[in-house]
Amino acid sequence: MSEEKKMDIAEVASTNFIDDFVKEDMAPGGRTEGMTVHTRFPPEPNGYLHIGHAKAIYVDFGTAERFGGICNLRMDDTNPTKEDVEYVDAIKEDIHWLGYDWDDRFYYASDFFEDMYRGAEELIEKGLAYVCELTPEQVKEMRGDLTTPARSPYRDRPKEESLDLFRRMRAGEFEDGRMTLRAKIDLASGNFNMRDPVIYRINHSRHHRTGDKWCIYPMYDYAHPFEDAMECITHSLCTLEFEDHRPFYNWVIENVTLPSKPRQIEFARLGINNTVMSKRKLRALVEGGYVDGWDDPRMPTLCGLRRRGYTPAAIRNFSERNGVSKVNSTVEYAFLEHCLREDLNQNARRVMAVLEPVKLTIVNYPEGQSETLTVENNPNKPEDGTREVTFSRTLWIEREDFLQEPVPKYKRLYPEGPECRLKGAYLIKCIGCETDETGKVIEVKAEYDPQSRGGDPADGRKVKGATLHWVDAATALTAEVRLYDNLFTVENPEEGNFLDYLNEASLSVLNDCKVERSLRDAKPGESFQFMRQGYFCADNRDSTPEHLVFNRSVKLKDSFKPAGN
Fold first, then answer.
1. Coil/strand/helix, residue 559
2. Per-residue pLDDT tens for 165-196?
3. Measured between alpha carbons, how far is 184 from 271 in angstroms, rounded to an integer?
4. Distance, CA of 174 to CA of 208 (rounded, Å)
5. What is the pLDDT of residues 350-390, one digit of tens each?
């Protein structure tokens, strides 16, 4: 690495304690002086990534990015289970969607099975591992406690005998569970992970990549440091539950001949309320039919959030602003919504959509006449330009924007009520309505001021009523709109049976919404602000030009209250 690159690393502003450790290691005389910062993200391909994984992705890829380094993607397939390509492909898609890339550095743990086996033989030959014939029940009985050491009658087995048995284990001579290979460390250690942990077990299951080549498989605690070292990882960034496993991680690195010596650093997981993030519970929601698949917009999965309308920028911002610490904490789901709202407020195009329509007739507007109005796309981004909307005698407005009998402080339409603005069009004044035989309003009638085109009266009079959105009935498109809310009714559904807290009102479907014609070209996943309603996106699975479907991503009103406010 050049001197210029070293100076760049020295000048990186630390955003958290991990950055401090990395800078310490990269400094002159440091553990990794002159090396490229190299991290990895190692998911197990047995489920979809969720918002908690986004935090780990941000830490792993983001740390490397800040220091001009690189990050690998590794699938942890140490368990010989059938690979589900769906999960592998989904993991890759989610990481790319968030804006990160691993280039050509894609690995499986099984890529290193032969190296791990050789390392195990090396430990046996050094007298640092032995074949143990205790059953799992016997191991549990002999584990000891904080004042009593663990025991194994096989601990002093000659290394030649252990090596022979280990090779026969690999050859398939013994049935599942008959023997294990254990590291020989310290049976009296206060850290039970160091009490001669199992590093290999017999399992005759077929592996999705290696087939029947192996009938012994490494335990994760042994495989983890091995994989990091073989990939020349400099900093192995893990969640906090691995902190007690770090002594064994370091023991493997120090006692096996490996090409590098990575450093493990732990950080706290992301906890978030109003949802569950256990793969088991998420799978139960999917397989029980409580949600519409892994990408249901109510799910905390990244594919679900993407379908809901969350953006990579919002999720990265959420991860960054939550910070990286050593203390577990729970974040409000409302803060995730706040980050999305900030992003969409700045970037989403404004459009008009009427979710519960009622007909509005402008009685003094000429029949058969139509005109075109120019409205802005985004007041926060003038560079996004304008678009044309049509206006005619018959419009659609929200049913809630009219009352026959107004309530106090109601400033929308009612007979003989105040003038109201139609967004970007004219001032109108309600003069009455038509109802059906049940008394339901089926048509609102109003008069308009022809001299108020654009929404401002020619005489400059003050308008006391509200500004209303609308859609021209002559050109409107019909759309399905899905209104999503929290999947659970309590903040912590993990307490008790989470299925008891499912929110039956978490999805409402509106089938006869009227939207402006410009939305016929809405691309799957494209986000919009439906004026006065919230932020919505075209469903990336179901929406077509022939049948438009929009998902509510987040309401306009922000319920998040920053600390101190």
1. coil
2. 999 999 999 999 999 999 999 999 999 999 99
3. 36
4. 22
5. 999 999 999 999 999 999 999 999 999 999 999 999 999 99
> Is the separation of the CB atoms in 476 and 391 below 8 Å?
no
Average pLDDT, the chain: 94
The residue whose two tokens read 């009427």 is 354
Torsion angle defined by CA atoms of residues 46, 47, 48 and 52, in that order, rounded to the nearest 10 degrees:
-100
Q: Which has the closest alpha carbon to 243: 224, 220, 267? A: 267
Amino acid at 52: G
Which of 279, 326, 381, 523 is catalytic? The answer is 279
CB 194 within 8 A of CB 179: no
At 10, list the tokens: 């020295």
Residue 112 pLDDT > 70, yes or no? Answer: yes
Which parts of 463-507 fold into alpha helices (H)?
none
Q: Is the dihedral of CA 24, 26, 27, 31 positive or negative?
A: positive
Catalytic hit among 44, 121, 133, 342: 44
Distance of CA 272 to the CA centre of its chain: 11
CB atoms within 10 A of CB 368: 6
Q: Which amino acid is at 327?
A: V
Residue 359 is among the residues annotated as catalytic for this protein = no
DSSP state of 233: -
- 451 token code pair: 């001299």
Q: Is 227 a catalytic residue?
A: no
The confidence score (pLDDT) of residue 85 equals 82
Query: CA angle, corner 537, sides to 88 and 508, nearest 5?
Result: 100
Helix (H, G, I), strand (E, B), or coil: what is residue 528? strand
Coil vs helix vs strand at 501: helix
What gap in Å lies between CA 318 and CA 320, rounded to an integer?
6
Q: For residue 259, what are its two tokens?
A: 């090409």
CB-based burial of residue 310 (10 Å sphere; 0-12 exposed, 13-18 middle, 19+ buried)? buried
Helix, coil or strand: residue 538: strand
89's tokens: 């492909």
Hey, what amino acid is at 391?
A: F
pLDDT in tens, 461-499: 999 999 999 999 999 999 999 999 999 999 999 888 999
- Cα distances from 538 to residues 294, 302, 308, 528, 556, in angstroms, run 18, 17, 9, 8, 17
Catalytic one of 105, 201, 269, 541: 269
pLDDT score, position 11: 78
Please give the Cα distance from 426 to 448 (Å, whole number).
7
Distance (Å, whole) CA 288 – CA 296: 13
Give yes or no: 409 in active site: no
Query: Tokens at residue 434, please?
Result: 């038509």
Other CB atoms within a 10 A radius of the CB of residue 143 amount to: 16
Q: Which residues contact 57 (CB under 8 A, 6 or more apart)?
A: 41, 49, 95, 98, 100, 319
d(CA 397, CA 532): 12
d(CA 117, CA 82): 22
DSSP string of 383-417, one letter each residue? GG-EEEEEEESEEEEEGGGB-SSPPTT--SB-TT-
